Write a sequence for this structure.
């Protein structure tokens, strides 16, 4: 007996397996639905987002693995991930204001830090007039 038109046969595979990704498509779909980012969600939007996320993670881990291998370390640490992101121009511009957990600011960032003072702001090392209770003259 022939099947009815309009009904497709379901394969027993997940969306992630169908598009050959390792990052979960259904998990991202649930997050996007629960986050109320849009009224409607395209079926290809979650697949595209999963592919982009998987590619970014693979690139960052590849760069961090290269840093670990160059410094003869056996494990990828958060510091190596931070250095890998910072030393790659494209990733550095993309993740410019992102804080990577458990990573202290790099030594070269602290050395190149310049103080930008506004006219009413005290120089570094001096007591602030706001702390003493006195108001600065305007």
């Amino acid at each position: 007996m022939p099947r009815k038109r309009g009904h497709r046969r379901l394969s027993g595979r997940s969306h992630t397996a169908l598009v050959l990704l390792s990052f979960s498509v259904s998990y991202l779909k649930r997050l996007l639905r629960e986050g109320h980012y849009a009224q409607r969600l395209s079926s290809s939007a979650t697949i595209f987002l999963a592919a982009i996320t998987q590619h970014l993670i693979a690139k960052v881990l590849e760069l961090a693995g290269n840093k670990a291998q160059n410094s003869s370390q056996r494990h990828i640490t958060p510091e190596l991930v931070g250095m890998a992101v910072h030393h790659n121009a494209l990733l550095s511009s993309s993740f410019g204001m992102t804080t990577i957990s458990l990573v202290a600011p790099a030594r070269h960032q602290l050395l190149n830090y310049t103080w930008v003072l506004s006219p009413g702001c005290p120089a570094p090392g001096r007591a602030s007039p706001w702390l003493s209770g006195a108001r600065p003259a305007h």
Summary: Residues 43-70 form the longest helix (28 residues).
